[in-house]
TrEMBL record:
Residues 1-284 form the Nucleolar protein 11 N-terminal domain. It comes from Alca torda. GO terms for cellular component: nucleolus. The keyword Transcription regulation applies. The gene is Nol11. Pfam families: Nol11_C, NOL11_N. This is NOL11 protein. Residues 359-670 form the Nucleolar protein 11 C-terminal domain. GO terms for biological process: maturation of SSU-rRNA. GO terms for molecular function: RNA binding.
């Protein structure tokens, strides 16, 4: 998810339906799915076709499979029966008892209490709701009836377990969250009625939240997905964070593209659909306090990082750093942070006791020199809570100042941070956008080399920019040449470069003229006499693109928009690299950070897939395609001949091992 790359995809046959969420077996690293209610499928990453993987048909319909890190998968059937996967696989057709008769399972969850797997599920019958708690190792099952709530019913459930007590939270249709406590140690076998207590009313300042799903963040905070409606206004889908300890709405975020109504939480990340994409949000909760809950926190006693939720993945949003005081939960908003406390009330305390958010808030109006010096000291700290998130906040603050002051651009500081810290695109998504706007190809090169999760659209834009920029301009800027220095002549000799002067060519006095309006015909002599279609600086930039991670399905649509002349130039460079690699026995380019032959061939195939029809029609591409075809055909013939003698070479190798190395002999082998 962090790299935004699909790793695998499996499909059932037409007419089959996956009937419960697929889970991963943490012990065996296998996937487990159920289709058509009873058919169990188990497979691993290397498997491609689901028809050929393990299959077992069960005797009863499956409701849900829960996978526990140390307890293995647990299977809950629609009739209330429970089995561990190991027991089930010993006899897939074993009879499964029907415990709940006419009740319908509405929700379930599994936990590990020590070494004991515990399963809890709720059912409904004729408007009554029941709770079942199953301890698998002890084979004990307890049934409870949920206390009825007049004129309302539960819509969603969530639960957690602590100190032998299950805390069940119920989201009701009367816009309230109720809490139910269930002790694990029960002596009575009779059905008991569970009383509930009001935990939270989902209304604030006249607005009411109609929740659809929710998750527990910590003992004092919950997140609820739903529609927030104010009197006389149209309801809006929102993700909201509530402080249950002080009954306050901590913060909320509108989701204009709509959601499916489902919300998941795993390892301090939210997962939900927004429009047509899966959105992943990092969050951080600090210890709750009354001052933070009502926005009146005036000073700080602990050097914690300010809490935030990362909204970077939402489309078309302006990224703004979260500057809310610590010991709270905050969201990055589209335009500005709404802080309940007035900024003028932030106390002036010692820097060592300030959170990152408070430091950035205090530096908002500082001079450029003070601003950069403070940020340099901040990023140089070896130990910092939530270091990655804090560095992301620092870069976001720099980018925000760049946007408010177009003349300000701290290139050296940004380069220093990116080169010395392990960052990702998702932590600072506006960084590359600003670098593109400022035409900072050096920073773009470093980002392409270091960021593992750059979206394909940004990769394509970088490629287009690198191909468009003039060679003359590239000579005037600093570019990392380590990927080309071992196989290309880095001394750019103007006398050896033949350039067609174009009407809108390079003009040192005009910044916009650094971009060629059409591709110039350039060749650059290399150290070994071969001609490279681009200069060493441009070659180094293109190498950074070749080595960036991508998904073919997402990159190909963008690559089709590449202008034909640029596509031809790029293919000429790829062909040059391909020939260079093939000259070596190990088919690798010398030097560091060089693209591999697999990366080169993958990009050649992508480019030809995207522009083959155009390439065939272009006169200037005819010779290139012909040369490429001849070279590939020669390579195929060469490897075909090698395959023919592979058996003989293996036999020769075997004989060499068998022969006494101490004895001198001459042996003649005849290859037939």
């Amino acid at each position: 998810v962090s790299d935004q790359k699909p790793l695998g995809c499996w499909s059932v046959k037409h007419g089959q339906i996956i009937t419960c969420p697929v889970v991963c077996n943490f012990e065996t690293h296998e996937y487990i799915a159920v289709h058509d209610d009873k058919v169990l499928r188990i497979w691993k990453n290397k498997d491609i076709n689901l028809d050929k993987v393990f299959k077992a048909t069960l005797s009863a319909d499956v409701y849900r499979i829960h996978s526990l890190p140390n307890g293995g998968p647990v299977v809950l059937f629609k009739g209330g029966g429970v089995r561990t996967l190991d027991v089930l696989l010993e006899a897939p057709q074993q009879e499964i008892e029907n415990i709940i008769s006419d009740e319908i399972v509405k929700w379930s969850e599994a936990f590990m209490e020590g070494q004991q797997p515990v399963l809890i599920f709720t059912t409904e019958k004729d408007g009554d709701f029941f709770v079942y708690v199953q301890k698998l190792k002890m084979n004990s099952l307890h049934k409870y009836k949920l206390e009825q709530q007049e004129l309302s019913k539960p819509l969603s459930f969530t639960a957690y377990i602590k100190n032998q007590i299950i805390t069940l939270l119920c989201l009701y249709s009367n816009d309230s969250v109720y809490e139910v406590l269930i002790p694990l140690q029960q002596n009575s076998e009779e059905e008991q009625i569970l009383s509930k207590s009001l935990l939270l009313k989902l209304s604030v300042s006249g607005s009411v939240l109609k929740g659809t799903s929710f998750v527990v963040l910590d003992k004092d905070h919950i997140a609820i997905l739903g529609s927030l409606a104010a009197p006389g206004e149209e309801s809006k889908e929102c993700l909201t964070i509530w402080n249950t300890k002080f009954q306050t709405l901590q913060t909320s975020k509108e989701l204009p593209l709509g959601t499916s109504g489902q919300l998941w939480c795993y390892e301090e990340k939210f997962f939900f659909t927004h429009g047509k994409v899966l959105t992943v949000m990092m969050y951080k909760c600090e210890t709750s306090s009354l001052a933070a809950a009502v926005g009146k926190l005036k000073d700080s006693q602990t050097p914690d990082v300010s809490s935030f939720i990362d909204w970077n993945t939402l489309a078309d949003e302006e990224l703004v750093v979260s500057l809310q005081s610590e010991q709270s939960v905050a969201l990055k908003s589209e335009s500005k942070m709404t802080l309940r406390s007035k900024r003028s009330t932030v106390a002036k305390v010692q820097p060592d006791t300030l959170s990152v958010g408070q430091i950035l808030l205090n530096l908002k109006d500082a001079s450029t020199t003070v601003f950069e010096n403070e940020l340099r000291q901040l990023v140089s700290k070896a130990q910092m809570p939530d270091f990655q998130a804090s560095i992301g906040c620092v870069i976001t603050a720099l980018i925000k100042r760049c946007k408010t002051n177009p003349k300000y651009y701290p290139q050296n500081l940004l380069l220093h941070i990116v080169e010395t810290r392990d960052l990702s695109y998702s932590l600072c998504p506006d960084l590359m956008a600003v670098a593109l706007e400022k035409k900072d190809v050096h920073l773009l090169q470093i980002c392409l080399q270091r960021f593992p999760d750059i979206p394909e659209e940004i990769t394509y834009v970088c490629l287009k920019v690198f191909l468009s920029i003039s060679e003359a301009y590239l000579q005037t800027i600093d570019v990392n040449l380590e990927s080309v220095i071992s196989y290309t002549d880095v001394e750019f000799n103007n006398k050896e470069v033949k350039t067609e002067i174009v009407e809108n060519g390079f003009n040192a006095e005009l910044e916009h003229d650094i971009w060629d309006t059409k591709i110039t015909k350039e060749t650059h002599p290399m150290a070994d006499g071969e001609l490279c279609p681009v200069g060493p600086q441009k070659a180094a930039l293109l190498n950074a693109v070749l080595q960036s991670a991508y998904s073919e399905a997402f990159l190909l649509p963008h690559l089709k928009n590449l202008p034909a002349q640029q596509a031809v130039l790029f293919l000429r460079y790829l062909y040059y690299l391909y020939v260079k690699c093939s000259e070596k026995i190990n088919t690798t380019l010398p030097g560091t950070r060089c693209p591999t032959i697999s990366q080169i061939m993958d990009w050649m195939c992508l480019l030809l897939d995207a522009h083959f029809t155009v390439m065939v029609m272009l006169p200037e591409a005819k010779e290139l395609l012909s040369n490429l075809h001849k070279f590939v055909r020669a390579q195929v013939r060469f490897y075909s001949e090698l395959n023919k003698i592979e058996g003989s070479l293996q036999e020769l190798q075997r004989r060499n091992h068998e022969r006494d190395s101490q004895t001198y002999s001459i042996e003649v082998l005849e290859f037939i």
